[in-house]
From TrEMBL:
This is HAAAP family serine/threonine permease. Coiled coil: none annotated. NCBIfam families: stp. Signal peptide: none annotated. It comes from Ursidibacter maritimus. It comes from the Bacteria.
């Protein structure tokens, strides 16, 4: 019975982490990753599995390295790096995640509004009303118990996986050899690979949910060795199904379109599904496209909300002599996030791409660089020191940061 519970518990977290990772970024990934041609895409597929698994494993181990069981990432940062560095890293952690919530608030409003007008041929409610209803519903789920919230996220992920796979298979008859015929020069190949790594980091990132995930594992298993082993299994499975489903979807889209069409999609600043629906004038893609976007944003919203709430709670409590009681803080953040997200979604600003590109290097610093630095410095993590995987994660983290700086300058 205990084994059945453990399997069910692990599966729920695999789906939850998968849902956190598969957000709006995946709908733009085929465009960004496919423009360099077929060969860089193959290399990316080989790299992205180990990158995703090893980086998230490092972050989970960092969270579990506290001398006080039950400490979230913000407390662990302060314990290991001191008060000042702790505040700075907690601030960075919050600003890596919260802007993505803003993107999702705008994205889900635009998706539903567009679907009502273009597919249902009805008049969409006023933007302020629609955005309030959608954001309030998503935040309402976050106020439920962890079990109920995980259940709802799981129910969102099942159709998301099915539709992503279905669309990937549906496009197979449309595949052409245009992407295969594009053989880039070595310099172009390396540049394409270099500049796509931050997009992969962003699209496969489920770090906002890692702290909650690690503490949930710790509470369930209690024994540190068993917790580490079970966490690694869940993270390995998550990375495996992410590579399988997401990269198959990317390959299917890239093989369906020519490099010129991918450039056109980028210029139009629309998701790959919107471009495919327009290209084929296809009712199936026209209806499933918004549905995929809705499921992807909904499931990803929950993981990012957990991370943003945790970051804000850490920041506020580090500035107070007496920490705010967690249940009370849940309600305060729910109200605060509802107001901010609602205002931003109603205004519908165009700076969101900039926020997304800024989030990339901060995610790389927290997900790739900080845990590897901690393994090198902190006595509690010495058992993981000197591994080749640490060097791989560190190098990939610096490549992701440098590629984004290249994009700025």
């Amino acid at each position: 019975m205990k084994q059945d519970n453990a399997t069910r518990f692990s599966l729920t977290w695999v789906l939850n982490l998968f849902g956190t990772a598969v957000g709006a970024g995946v709908l733009f990934l085929p465009i960004n990753a496919g423009m360099g041609g077929f060969l860089p895409l193959v290399v990316m597929t080989v790299l992205v599995g180990p990158m995703t698994y090893l980086a998230h494993r490092g972050l989970a181990r960092f969270v579990l390295s506290s001398s006080k069981p039950g400490s979230d990432i913000t407390s662990v940062v302060q314990e290991h790096f001191g008060v000042t560095a702790g505040k700075l890293i907690t601030l960075l952690y919050f600003f890596a995640i919260f802007p993505i919530l803003l993107i999702y608030g705008v994205g889900i409003t635009n998706t539903v509004s567009s679907f009502v007008e273009n597919q249902l041929h009805l008049t969409a409610p006023p933007r302020a009303v629609l955005s309030f209803m959608l954001i309030a519903a998503m935040i309402g789920v976050m106020l439920l118990s962890e079990t109920a919230m995980l259940k709802i996220t799981t129910y969102l992920v099942y159709p998301l996986v099915a539709i992503l796979l279905g669309l990937s298979l549906y496009l197979i008859p449309q595949w052409n050899g245009a992407a295969l015929s594009q053989m880039p020069q070595t310099s172009d190949f390396l540049t394409a690979l270099w500049l796509t790594i931050p997009v992969l980091v962003f699209s496969f990132n489920h770090s906002p949910a890692i702290s909650s995930f690690a503490l949930s594992q710790q509470k369930f298993y209690q024994d540190p060795q068993q917790t580490d082993k079970a966490s690694n299994t869940v993270l390995r499975c998550t990375s495996g199904i992410l590579v399988l489903f997401v990269m198959f979807f990317v390959f299917s889209c890239v093989l369906t379109l020519t490099p010129q069409e991918l450039l056109e999609a980028k210029a139009q600043n629309i998701s790959i599904l919107s471009y495919l629906a327009n290209k084929f004038d296809n009712p199936i893609i026209s209806y499933f496209g918004p549905f995929v976007a809705f499921l992807a944003i909904g499931s990803s919203f929950f993981g990012h909300y957990l991370g943003a709430r945790e970051g804000l709670e850490g920041l506020v409590n580090q500035m107070r002599s007496e920490p705010i009681e967690p249940e009370k803080f849940k309600k305060i953040t729910a109200l605060l996030f509802l107001i901010v997200l609602w205002i931003v979604a109603t205004i519908n600003p165009s700076i969101l791409g900039f926020i997304e590109s800024l989030g990339g290097p901060i995610i790389a610093m927290i997900l790739f660089i900080m845990p590897m630095y901690a393994i090198h410095k902190i006595p509690a993590l010495q058992q993981f020191k000197g591994k080749l995987s640490n060097a791989f994660v560190t190098v990939m983290g610096f490549i992701a940061i440098s590629a984004i700086l290249y994009g700025f300058f």
